[in-house]
Specification:
The complex is a heterodimer.
Chain A: E1 15-27, E2 33-49, E3 54-58, H1 65-72, E4 80-85, E5 88-89, H2 95-104, E6 105-108, H3 112-115, H4 122-130, H5 138-151, H6 168-180, E7 186-190, H7 198-215, E8 218-222, H8 226-232, E9 235-240, E10 243-249, H9 250-256, H10 260-267, H11 305-309, H12 314-317, E11 326-329, E12 332-334
Parallel strand pairs in A: 3-8, 3-9, 6-7, 7-8
Antiparallel strand pairs in A: 1-2, 1-4, 4-5, 9-10, 10-12, 11-12
Helix pairs in contact in A: 4-5, 4-6, 5-6, 6-7
Chain B: H1 10-15, E1 19-32, E2 37-50, E3 54-58, H2 65-73, E4 80-89, E5 98-99, H3 104-107, E6 108-111, E7 117-120, H4 122-136, E8 141-144, H5 148-151, H6 158-169, H7 175-188, H8 194-197, H9 207-220, E9 225-229, H10 237-254, E10 257-262, H11 265-271, E11 274-279, E12 282-288, H12 289-292, H13 302-309, H14 314-319, H15 354-359, E13 365-368, E14 371-373
Parallel strand pairs in B: 3-10, 3-11, 8-9, 9-10
Antiparallel strand pairs in B: 1-2, 1-4, 4-5, 6-7, 11-12, 12-14, 13-14
Helix pairs in contact in B: 6-7, 6-9, 7-9, 9-10
The chains are: A alpha/beta, B alpha/beta.
Chain lengths: 349, 389
């Protein structure tokens, strides 16, 4: 297990994100940006990842995990903050310099049907990606394409298939092959297993782990499936409404989650796996709507069982004392005034 | 309605004894004009649901679980649709079962083949069938759909939609009484400020809230059989767990007979009394949940084993093990193989008797009482004589 760097990151980390913010502004009449009216999709996120590591990002829909992945790859412009890739700031890059970096950093998109052009054969889809950064002769393209299909365990015959002829698992494999075509080092995988059937998801999960080992890839693995994240990721980052609320080694969170939100998430996991900590608490709201998102203080307090149990302490709602990520044990960071189960985290059975 | 004598098949009555709903030999086909073949979405399904019990149908996409319940509800409109089978249903307070597919033989002539042949006057069948089913839907059978946002009407308020169900169930209630009851149901599914929610439109609510409104609507009808199609898919983990809590609570307090469709073994484990595992339009294993989902000795069918091992367990995560996978893909439902449908992907064929798997499809039989399986590992071929294994 790599020693988990803290919030500030360690100098020379492979990928270092510091205080990243992505705000979406609502526009007024005539398209004027209204500076006070925004949704903070990513709101001050810092983390670092080492080469060959895979960082799992979990949280429910709307927590900003997808936006974070896209901002890091500069698919969406960041509002402020810094993203350093191998020591180099990439938020300010443009033109050729950015394109060169893009080769190293790729994304596996969630929506397969949108990611693969249905009117292009698999061979053309791969050729397009292969010749993007390299000049290759047609036979070389063919050879490389077959190699890529081999990597994702598909038969070369699939080169002439159109995406709609493929099953969900095969489409996912093609989308991974396409990403691997440019030989990336960092892959942001956005819910790569979500649309797949159980047995197919298991095949793809195994494939992603094999590829990481053989090609020394670094993953940002975005998912809402906690079990898969724990299996694939070395460290897991839990997000809630644009903030990181907890970060810990993957195997630690199931039994030792300290943030009430993480505990709620893991309590929802199938008890069969033996990971359930406690039944979902009855206190606190189930969910909150867009309009009710708190913008100051602890964002989770409305749904927090601890906040309600402790009689709604002022420290949780005060904007001055918004909880910051602090280390509760080596490699385990929590942003909560009342972290749970500290020091008594049971060993996994 | 005069029943032809063939409908009162004795074995069916005996087999389905005590069941609220007993589906036997149900076949629902679709026609693929481009290939000139039938897609056998549901191909000889047998299911029994007893009163107060929760049956969970598990299977991957294309296994036929949704089409099975849609056939029961009479909601399959594409031709040819339901081509054969019996659906025995015992209405509340009745001793006798009625066949919901009554009269199907008059409109459809089905030969199992090969080659499969279906002659069906689907328009006349649907008209005939609809007359019987319209009264039952929403009263005897209520359904919770997978996508609650699409299932609720966008132009009517939550209060209007829930109270409509209540007035349909009890026409003697006044509008005010129905709304009051709707409010009580919304409170029962833990919506906060139910009085305020009555006036909300579906777009005012989050996905989890819509799902709870759907559950309230389905339960308010006080159905004999509640059908939930993937009730937690698409919801966030914490909300999923709350919806499951809610369904568990409703199961305990209202004792509604329930059929749940899911691909999630976790959901099955939490809700099921009995589990039926479906594959390629068939039930391949059916039995008590603790046996079928046990994972070790009591799980019988190789496909069920495969599904269970494909989910990361605590041990897999701790030791960073590779997941068990079922190699290959689901067979093409319009071109099914001759032997066992799972044979191609199966890694647990019975030693020395593998030839059976490719040659002949096993029937759904019970090697131990109450636990049926469609697998030669556990069943004896008539030609074999002696006991298996």
């Amino acid at each position: 297990m790599s020693s988990a760097p803290g919030r500030e990151g360690v100098g020379g980390a492979f990928l270092e994100v510091h205080d990243l913010r992505t705000y979406f502004y609502r526009r007024g009449r005539f398209g004027a940006v209204r500076p006070d009216d925004y949704v903070a999709a990513v709101d001050g996120v810092s983390f670092s990842v080492e080469e060959g590591e895979s960082l799992g990002i979990v949280g429910e829909s709307g927590c900003g995990k997808t936006t974070l992945g896209r901002t890091v790859l500069r698919v969406i412009p960041a509002t402020s903050g810094s993203v350093r890739y191998r020591g180099e700031e990439i938020l300010g890059l443009g033109g050729a310099a950015l394109r060169a970096k893009r080769r190293d950093m790729q994304m596996i998109f969630q929506d397969l049907d949108a990611a693969l052009n249905p009117k292009m054969r698999v061979g053309d889809l791969l050729a397009e990606a292969l010749t993007l950064h390299k000049k290759l002769s047609p036979p070389e393209v063919r050879r490389h394409s077959e190699e890529l299909l081999g990597l994702v365990k598909l038969k070369p015959a699939k080169l002439s298939a159109f995406p709609p002829e493929l099953s969900g698992g095969e489409k996912r494999r093609v989308s991974i092959a396409r990403v691997l075509a440019v030989e990336p080092r960092l892959i942001v995988a956005d819910e790569p297993l979500s649309a797949l059937d159980v047995s197919i998801a298991a095949q793809v999960a195994n494939l992603m782990r094999d590829l990481q080992e053989s090609l020394k890839l670094t993953y940002l693995f975005i998912s809402h499936d906690l079990r898969m994240v724990e299996l694939i990721a070395h460290r897991v980052m839990v997000m809630y409404l644009g903030r990181v609320v907890e970060m810990a080694p993957a195997r630690f969170l199931a039994a030792g989650a300290a943030h009430p939100y993480s505990r709620l998430l893991w309590a929802a996991v199938d008890p069969y796996t033996g990971l359930r900590i406690e039944p979902a608490t009855a206190t606190g709201r189930w969910e909150i709507s867009e309009a009710e998102r708190p913008k100051a203080g602890c964002r989770f307090r409305d749904r927090c069982p601890v906040y309600h149990a402790k009689g709604e302490p002022a420290i949780c709602s005060d904007a001055e004392t918004e909880p910051q990520l602090t280390e509760v044990s080596p490699g385990h960071l929590v942003a909560c005034h009342f972290p749970q189960g500290r020091g008594e985290a049971p060993e996994l059975a | 309605m005069t029943e032809p004598p063939a409908v009162r098949a004795r074995p069916a009555r005996r087999e389905g004894e005590g069941a609220v709903l007993f589906v036997r030999d149900l076949r629902t086909y679709f026609y693929l004009p481009a290939r000139g073949r039938f897609l056998r979405a549901v191909d000889g399904v047998r299911l029994a649901v007893r009163e107060g019990e929760t049956l969970v149908l598990v299977g991957e996409s294309g296994s036929g679980k949704s089409v099975t319940v849609l056939s029961v509800m009479g909601l399959v409109t594409a031709a040819p649709g339901v081509v054969s089978g019996r659906i025995w249903y015992r209405p509340p307070g009745h001793e006798d079962q009625v066949n919901l597919l009554e009269g199907l033989e008059r409109f459809a002539r089905f030969t199992p083949g090969p080659p499969v042949s279906v002659e069906k006057d689907n328009r006349r069948w649907l008209k005939w069938h609809e007359a019987g089913m319209r009264e039952r839907r929403g009263r005897d059978f209520a359904m919770i759909f997978q996508n609650p946002r699409n299932a609720l009407h966008p132009y009517f308020t939550v209060g209007q939609q829930v109270s409509e169900v209540i007035r349909r169930r009890s026409p003697e209630l006044s509008g005010g009484e129905a709304v009051a009851e709707a409010r009580a149901w919304l409170a029962k599914v833990h919506l906060d400020a139910p009085a305020k929610r009555l006036g909300d439109y579906p777009h005012n609510l989050s996905g989890g809230m819509c799902q709870r409104v759907m559950i309230a609507m389905a339960l308010a009808a006080r159905p004999t059989v509640l059908i939930a199609d993937e009730p937690t898919t698409g919801l966030d983990a914490t909300i999923q767990s709350r919806v499951l809590d809610l369904l568990e609570e409703m199961k305990a307090t209202l004792k509604t007979t329930t059929i749940v469709i899911t691909h999630d073994m976790g959901v099955a484990r939490r809700l099921a009394d009995r589990v039926a595992v479906m594959y390629a339009g068939r039930v391949v294993e059916e039995g008590p949940a603790r046996e079928v989902l046990n994972g070790r000795y009591e799980t019988k069918h190789p496909y069920t084993h495969g599904l269970l091992y494909a989910i990361p367990s605590a041990g897999d995560i701790r030791e960073k093990r590779r997941l068990g996978t079922i190699e290959g893909d689901v067979p093409d439902l319009s071109r099914l193989p001759a032997g066992c449908q799972f044979a191609e992907r199966c890694g647990m064929k019975p030693p020395g008797r593998e030839y059976l798997c490719d040659r002949e499809e096993p029937g759904l039989d019970a090697p131990v009482p109450g636990h049926r399986v469609r697998c030669w590992r556990h069943l004896r071929h008539p030609s074999e004589g002696g006991a298996p294994q």
